[in-house]
Amino acid sequence: MADKPIRDDLKLSNLLPPLFICLVIGTIWSVYTCLHLLPLLQIGVPAAFQDVSAVRRGSLQAMISQLLVSLFLTCYTRACLTSPGEVPDTPEWRLGSAHVPSTREVKNTGERRICKWCMKYKPDRCHHCRVCKTCVLKMDHHCPWIMNCVGWGNHKFFFLVVVYAATTCTFIFFTVLESVAASVDKDMPHLNRFLLVLCMMLAFIMGTLMIIFLGFHTCLMLRAMTTIEFCEKGTMVRAAGTPNYDRGVWENVTQVLGPRPLLWLLPTDPARGDGMHFGRLDD
User: For this structure, is 143 an active site residue?
Assistant: First the structure.
């Protein structure tokens, strides 16, 4: 009896990036909590012998850090599990349909864009992902770190993952410096001293990378572009004659983060529209 093929999304090569992220985040969080926050909070120390200033700092840092980590994990989970959106399996999008919805993007020959793998017409900004084996609406890119494509349905969650990763790592880096500096003169196991430095360096490296990444994706969002569109053009400025989906900064942001500003930084209230029709400023 032949062995059953392993699902592509469960192959080790696809699981390694998310596992690596979990390992790095778990290391930073556990070291920060056990070797930085808990000593500041002085749990188990009689109140008369506690450093009140340190306890206050520890309490504030604990509340902020745990909130940021919780938001990061929630956004990361939603980015991984939320479908980016697929072309509807309805008659008008199937090849050979006599009533195909109009689109702006066409082939160089002027013909409609089609997907030879899905056997469907492609809406604007839709691309086929060979990893996910489906056409993704408003596809930004395939992200191995979330083991999913980033598209219309989960673009906000992915963006917030970057926001909270950058914010959390930056906060942890600057606050853990106190414990790293104190470890130089404090009598503690060498392993603890090593782990504190490791936590600081991981937070610095991840924070720096995420800040750069956040800046890039913020520029794309403000210009109503996807990573694929940027790579195709090689610039943030759209060439003349190519479809332009820029509707102004406000509309561009709400297309990704949702229509209610109070909910922009929360993993809810996803983008408007259907992922297949996009206006422009002069419409």
Answer: yes
